[in-house]
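PT: before anyone asks, these are the final sequences, not the draft ones from last week. 463 residues across everything. Please model them as a single complex and drop the result in this thread when it's through.
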Amino acid sequence: MIPYKKQAYKLLHQGAIALAQVEGNGIQIDTDYLKKCIFKTEKKIEKLKHKLEQGDVAKKWKRVYGWKTNFNSNDQLGKILFDHMGIEGGVLTKSEKQYQTDEKSLMAVNHPFVKRHLQIKKLQKALATYLKGIQREVVDGFLHPFFNLHTTTTFRSSSDSPNFQNIPVRDKGMGKLIRTAFIARPGRQLVELDYSQLEVCIAACYHKDPVMIEYISDPEKDMHRDMAMECYLLSAKQVTKDSRFYAKNCFVFPQFYGDWYIDCARALWEAITTADLKTEKGTPLKEHLAKQGITELGNLDPDEKPRKGTFERHIQQVEKRFWQERFPIYDKWKKHWYSKYLGQGWMLTKTGFICQGFMKRNEVINYPVQGSAFHCLLWSLVRLVKEIKKRKMKTLIIGQIHDSILADVPPEELDDFLVLAQDVMTTQLVKEWDWINVPLSIEAEVCPVGGSWVDKEDVEIPK
DNA sequence: AAACAGTGCGCG
DNA sequence: AAAGCGCGCACTGTTT
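LR: through. Structure below.
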């Protein structure tokens, strides 16, 4: 992909300058905490490793591998579990060179040794990639991650040394361990501004599906709740926060990215057990589905027509209705956009970039959306950096994560900054780019003075 | 010693 | 016919 329109070139040029300033500003790190945390985590890992090595499985492992024994080796782990211990259900990786030993596969093994092994692996990830990775890059108490505009195929950004765009947050324990190290400058506070469902909005700018635009524009409507109702056969009242969450992440988003019913059905079905999904009155969803004639998952065999009464068949029908009845215009756009690419071998994004070369169908559908969504953030960041300078504010932009901005703000500037950011990111941006045909909105999170990045809390943006 | 492929895992 | 997109980083094990 190369910048094509003059506007596209200009955006990257100004973006590079603004991001260089962001890099220069840097993020303050609580180096004392970091040091102590590394020490503690190392001790914890040592203890767990010691316990692990006492057990029978470890002894067997040492007998088999002798001096080559390496408890970090996934290849060895797989062979010990599935070949030497005879545990059933080992699955080979795509290249068939070793067994799959990712967290999900191993959870299915359900063995105390494996549980401890996973726990150690998680802590080692936290220690090696994050705690030590951050410490290695700190200079005079500040971290200066790079933000690149020249590395990705979609013309999103990337970040490295360290990567600021994948700091743990979903796992609460891990999030706390790492994010406690990220602090604001003395007497100031961290502020994070996120676009709400930016990629969904930008996709709508391409396909212009009126039903989707309605979902985005009407705060009363809720796409993920509606799909939870369909996937799990619930009434609006019966949908819980959890069932909505899994409908969103196992069906809606995967469908937007080009997934298909087989994998969606598997994920939705597994979620019922692993997340203990129930109706609002507490009926387990498997029981609830059984009452409506769905008693099993099905074989999930692509070459086989799904049988009646299987969840697989149900989701196949949900998928069909999703594209043919709920979002037919979106569906048509996908087909048209792809066939246009097949005809000419390239495509032009809303932000003026050309994507060219060999691309798979799902890539053709996704690249323009992903790129343009990030360009909304980049344009806003450029404008914000300029406005802050013009107004002689002390606020500093210190990072960016695809659809969000992190700033280090003095409390006396907080309200002004929130108002300014909202104006730039929603009103000014939409004014600048007339192809944006849906309202954009942002959410703000603020950390207390003296707190750290873990302590962020939602705040209302003043009018 | 350096480079490479493969696997896994963190984020949007 | 294919079957979810984009990244960076650590680590194993092999090849150069």
